[in-house]
From TrEMBL, chains A, B:
Keywords: DNA-binding, Transcription, Transcription regulation. One of its GO terms (cellular component) is cytosol. Residues 154-232 form the HTH crp-type domain. InterPro entries: cNMP-bd_dom, cNMP-bd_dom_sf, Env_Response_Regulators, HTH_CRP, RmlC-like_jellyroll, Tscrpt_reg_HTH_Crp-type_CS, WH-like_DNA-bd_sf, WH_DNA-bd_sf. This is Crp/Fnr family transcriptional regulator. GO terms for molecular function: DNA binding; DNA-binding transcription factor activity. It comes from Rhodophyticola porphyridii. Residues 23-140 form the Cyclic nucleotide-binding domain.
Amino acid sequence: MPNRQLAIPQQECADCPIRHRAVCARCETDELEHLESIKYYRKFEAGQTVVWAGDKMDFVASVIEGVASLTQTMEDGRRQMVGLLLPSDFLGRPNRDTAPYDVVASTDVMLCCFRRAPFQKLIAENANISQRLLEMTLDELDAAREWMLLLGRKTAREKIASLLSIIARRDASLKDLPSKGEVSFDLPLTREAMADYLGLTLETVSRQMSALKRDDVIRLEGKRHITIPDFDLLMDETGDDADGGMLV
Amino acid sequence: MPNRQLAIPQQECADCPIRHRAVCARCETDELEHLESIKYYRKFEAGQTVVWAGDKMDFVASVIEGVASLTQTMEDGRRQMVGLLLPSDFLGRPNRDTAPYDVVASTDVMLCCFRRAPFQKLIAENANISQRLLEMTLDELDAAREWMLLLGRKTAREKIASLLSIIARRDASLKDLPSKGEVSFDLPLTREAMADYLGLTLETVSRQMSALKRDDVIRLEGKRHITIPDFDLLMDETGDDADGGMLV
DNA sequence: TGACTGTATTGATCTCGATCAATTACAGCG
DNA sequence: CGCTGTAATTGATCGAGATCAATACAGTCA
């Protein structure tokens, strides 16, 4: 299970809305004391675009609450999600001030932003931060490669099951619950966003969700709240091998 | 165009078979002098497996010559390539001694290997190397995301055109030639490997290659040598926008 | 030279997911 | 409460790419 926390795990932070999971001021680590001045928060509502592909981006950020997505679009409108950011994930890239993808809030999102220039200075001066960033980027690369297997070789049903298991796991680990037996959570994505994630159409997503429901692999309350009666049963549908191949 | 060189660009190195494009001894940079003892070379023949998924990997390496691929396999045999390593690309990951994917030589390959332990020490002590590694990993992440768009949303024809353009570009930049007008190169992949790259079957790859040939977008001499009469024409087939969206 | 082997091409057919289209469910709001 | 608009479901049909099968081709070895 990859560690997603950038620098200071498990410390409380007075002005963060949740338990602190990112570089931030107010933490009792002297090397980070001066961050105070470079940090600020931003809120986005579900559906809002955080940055457009090609825009200047004068900050990097850590997701505090909610879910955001990175999406690529072709001229003719075909779209593919290429990144899904959940709480504690990192957004942006040192040494590049132009966003390569659209970043869209899937739910209401709270970002903890850091101005670019001082953040880069911080990296340059602080070996352990850049090493942590390397670790996190390598984890993201692993996730991207798992995702490539999904896009290239899995069936629609396997794709859906994989996505649900990924979200269920992340959600469980956020709540410090095990992802075993009965698991339930709120889907932070529309059917369309799921389709963009999986390289499918929203109709196919809907059909396969219905099929999984019919086969009692999942249960739906409303459109968004999902209960998985038996997590192992869902895993059987993903096409992944039983032991932890999943790196996400 | 991403910089793929790890530390010391464009310096000659007495015992490297080609112009030096990777961390290595013998370079006149004192901080790297001690690498001498941790470095060694390994050759692999086309088709040979460098490491199996799950194997211990006690080295990291830089590709000096040839082409290798990273491939994921599902239990039932479905396979998806998730990385393509060309000369100057980096193989392996600090802080993980188990290979997550099969690494297979597509052509004869020469690796410049570094023993894991001293290499990690080097990173820990040497801020600019870990920063360079971060840069390279971020570039790979970009490439992976471009690849995800290909896998999720492109047609078979677009996939083939994209792959050819990627290889043509890399090959041209290796030979310090522009990728404009007429371009020609040797395909370092079998039809099957191309299929694994693109999430297609080898029959579809073959059919689309024939179609591109029929439409005079490419010309074939033998099965492997390819000439692109007009690079722009090929780019029109990729589905990418005209300006440099491509990051690979 | 011809048999053998692995790689590539081409053909015939089938299938999964896309596409086009109609309905339904539901939240917000006058 | 009944409108209105958005998200989701379901149905009917189509087609790109998969699958199964036969053939071509190039290299290698006896």
